[in-house]
Protein: PhoX family phosphatase
Organism: Tsukamurella sputi
Amino acid sequence: MRLPDLRLLTDHDGKSARSHTTCKYKCGNQCFREHDNQSANEYFGDITRRTVLRGAGVAALGAGAVTVLAACGDNGSRGAGASSSAAAGNGAPSGDVTAPGLNFPAIAPNKKDAVTVPEGYEQAVVIRWGDPVLPGAPQFDFDNQTPEAQAQQFGFNNDFTDLIAVEGKPDTFLMVCNQEYTTGTAMFKGYKEGDPTENQVRVEMAAHGISVVEVKGEPGSGKLTPVLGEYNRRITASTPFEVRGPAVGFFTKTAADPTGTRVLGTIANCSGGITPWGTMISGEENYTNYFSGTDTPPLDGLKEGWKRYGVGKDEEAHHWMKYEDRFDLSKEPNEINRFGYLVEVNPHDPTSTPVKHSALGRMKREGGNIFLTPTGDVVTYCGDDSKFEYIYKFVSSRKIEPGKGAAAMGANMRILDEGTLYVAKFEGRKVENGKVPEGGYQGTGKWIPLLTTRADGSAESHVEGMPAENVALWTRVAGDKVGATKMDRPEDIEPNPRTGKIYCALTNNSDRGTEGKAGIDTPNPRVKNKSGQLLEITDDHTGTDFSWDLLLVCGDPAAADTYYGGFDKTKVSRISCPDNVTFDSHGNLWISTDGTNSTFDSNDGLFGVVLEGKDRGLTKQFLTVPFGAETCGPVVRDNRVLVAVQHPGETDDATADKPTSHWPDGGSSQPRPSVVAVWKKSGNIGS
């Protein structure tokens, strides 16, 4: 399906102002077609402040005895950079307010073609697209790319990133990183949109997936250098995966896989997390725009699901169907049902088979993150990153098997196969558009069960009229039927390891409150929401009750409709379009952004936010990424910060023949998505 030309998207209406190129290749321009959730379920309803406070107390009891998991102290070589501190009145605070872990001069918004960090900090690139990952991998040759070479090199458009310590090797880590999507016009000179060559398609397929790279620290700095180590691995769109859980059945079987349990590859991997047992989990998000050929389901059983997931409705971007029939919906309509899951990879064994867990449902999954309760319960939180979609949690019925051997790892990689999947339903006081209520935004909510998967593999649906297999496959439909709350694009969701509270980035929603669309409610309080908000949930993790607050209602601090946790808005850095979140060892929240140029005409960045005490809501900008780029995958340790710089210079007038960015190598070089490490010249981050 081809949409109208959407170039030069510079509105002030809440529509995305990222480039048409990014929208096309990343998500098939889904923001510019009718959204997928046409259900009639409404907001839970209005409640009194007394009820809110009572519910908050109950939920707080459930999270009270939280285990404190201290963040570790822990990264780059090449890279053009800059250092810039902000003056008052230019979108960043004056610097007269400090907090533990955030004692740095906030930087000013800018549009530089560089990673900009505070004064007193240094930076370097850890790894770039095309750098060798596997031993024997060839050096990157932009003009002579092959799929065989790319399958051994760091993939394109890095997103979620994290570090797993290597036992017995000080300051050495396995860096895991998603490779979310590819942009043919940026990867190849002479690329013909709509008509890529087979070599180009095969290179793009090899540039997707996940990279596992050993990295070694440098004494006296936070720099990290890649090592061609024994654990290194590239997982691509052609790597064999196992599909497990209640979705496996008729609708996952294909001509190439009559069992329905084996699929090639993972694509559109956005955010993710590290499990307590040492594996990586990753979400398959905008996978639908890789499939084309028809928008008419060939089987009656697919009609409702295809409609609800927008299958065949996205703008064609990658055209993989030209060379692989499994991406042609008219030839293999079930292949798409094998994507949209939480995938799990054992980074300690490069020969292991990764798994797709369907017990957690199927959606356009941003990612997933786990909270381990004091009693050993494993609870996973995740969001469906589309307009008016839902927030979910999965409470496993299994506990972690102690030990570090293969048997323990095998058992623990079954934890996400058993348990109950829930969807969130929110309630709160009535709100007025553009007016912050006294005391901020708060409410309570319920987790509604959708599906329980048992140890023997059998499953029980909790949704009337939907078999368990259908709930696992068409989880959005299940959420519709039980009246889940429509949210403003739930992006990254992570538990704070110090407090157990859950933080969710709701990035924006240009359709909120417009004609024929869901209206405002307390957790989604603005019409044509262009800047997003940050949701804080206090959960009884294994129970069904929770309370919630809006920590931030993002946007211009001078605007009446913004809220920074009750903190003085004249002393905060402005923030818009929150995307990924993480935490430091002080308990501060760190937020990366995607779409700042839609509201402020400046580059995306990374921000630290105080969560507790008198300075709750203090927001300080730590860095910005280059022109045209998105800030992804933040990692914040005591001695270094990592960010994944995605799609640098990806503007509508940019091509490989005429690039608009030359980051990170400078000169006349091509832009290359890269992971960057930042560290303080003397002392820890924010000290």
